Amino acid sequence: MDRDWELLAICRHEDPDIWFSKRTCTLAKKICLNQCPVREECLEATLLREQGLARTDRAGIAAGLTGAQRAAIAKDRGEKPKLPVGSRGPGRPLARCGTRSAYQRHMRLGEPVDDACRAANAAASKDYATTGTTVGR
Ligand code: SF4
Ligand SMILES: [Zn+2]
Known about the structure:
By secondary structure, this protein is an all-alpha fold. It is built from five helices and no strands.
């Protein structure tokens, strides 16, 4: 996305804390809604950046909206909310046991390896030996 609009963002010239403090959130909303010429662009960029985040992980005011309001819009658009960051860690969801990814995770974290994961890894290695790839595993 073209980011030239950011140069026109009113908040660039203000104290960023205004957008992140409960005490000043009403002021922040007013600035966004009444003064900022790029609110639409800001909203789309923010929703994109926050894609998949839980309501509680959408911090501060953006485009005149609270995190809860942005989460509601995302939900209306059919986005699936994930668990809050911290309850699962950032990034992709964990691979389930019985896959090579889970096996590799166990090894990486020094976890005990269960039979399902050991079998999945053995099968993938055997595949690799015969086909030169594990794609499809
Ligand atoms: S609408 Fe977005 S870019 Fe404009 S002032 Fe508010 S937070 Fe900043
Ligand atoms: Zn496992």
